[in-house]
Write a structure and sequence with these properties.
The chain has 251 residues and is α+β, with helices and mostly antiparallel strands. The chain has two domains: 118 residues, no CATH class; 127 residues, Four Helix Bundle (Hemerythrin (Met), subunit A) (Up-down Bundle). The protein has six helices and six strands, in the order αββββββααααα. The strands form two sheets. Strands 2-1-5-6 form a four-stranded antiparallel beta sheet, with helices on one face. The chain has a two-stranded antiparallel sheet with strand order 3-4. α2 packs antiparallel against α3, α3 crosses α5 and α3 runs parallel beside α6. The protein is elongated, with a radius of gyration of 24 Å.
Length: 251
């Protein structure tokens, strides 16, 4: 616990030194900010598309959080809530008005305590689209499995697996910008993170086997040898991989 507090304290101080203080000084020099400034909240938004980071200060910080009120405080639904009425924060997310594809670090002072929230994941909206698409392909694979249409099963199961894998890559902080978009690039990067222990080796193996089988399924030169046992195993692995992607998204 002490180490966690020290880590948060260092992160908080680094945020102030690297981004917040320089922004406050810049604004004060232009007469856009009171001097001295009483800081109650600060936020740095990071983008993965080349845009520079953005610093929000005090009432510019727009967040949504679940909180417990202090004893005796009762607020009607839709009523205004003030920081001094809050006992503690129980949950937090960026407001819907903020770009869902940005990463952020946010600090808020409530009741004399500073709360720090950090999320380095980019492209959440894109990841959500990938997850929804994966669900649809998996449903198509399940239908093909019930009809024993193995070529259609393999093709749809692979698409579901690839989309789920890509969603995980999208949500995972990457070096060098956006994650790969080609089949080869997704496969290469997914195998890399499997070696790092970030995904189940069995899910990786099924993903690779489906990638190979898909070639036979889509471009038949010889019979695709496939059976119910293998289909059940692969379907369950892809379903688990999709659940893994959802868990990454929900963090």
């Amino acid at each position: 616990m002490t180490e966690d507090l020290e880590t948060y304290a260092r992160t908080f101080q680094q945020m102030l030194d690297l981004w917040v203080k320089p922004e406050v000084v810049r604004r004060q020099s232009r007469g856009e900010c009171p001097k001295p400034l009483r800081l109650t909240a600060a936020q740095v938004l990071f983008f993965n598309d080349g845009r520079p980071h953005r610093v929000n200060i005090n009432d510019e910080v727009n967040v949504t959080f679940k909180a417990e009120f202090k004893p005796g405080i009762h607020i009607a639904e839709g009523g205004d809530v003030y920081l001094d009425q809050i006992e503690r924060i129980e949950g937090f997310k960026l407001d819907d008005s903020i770009d869902p594809d940005c990463g952020h670090i946010t600090v808020i002072s409530i009741g004399g305590h500073w709360y720090l929230f950090f999320d380095a994941r980019y492209e959440r909206a894109w990841a959500e689209e990938l997850i929804v698409a994966s669900e649809q392909f998996l449903a198509a694979a399940e239908h093909a499995r019930s009809r024993k249409h193995w070529r259609a099963f393999v093709d749809n199961a692979f698409s579901a697996a690839e989309l789920a894998a890509k969603a995980i890559l999208v949500l995972m902080p990457m070096r060098g910008g956006r994650p790969p978009s080609s089949h080869r690039g997704v496969k290469t990067r997914f195998n890399e993170i499997a070696k790092m222990g970030k995904v189940d080796p069995h899910h990786r193996d099924v993903f690779n086997k489906l990638a190979q089988a898909r070639i036979l399924a889509r471009y038949p030169k010889r019979e695709l040898v496939f059976g119910e046992g293998t289909a059940d195993e692969y379907f369950e692995a892809v379903r688990e991989l999709l659940e893994k992607a959802k868990a990454w998204y929900a963090k």
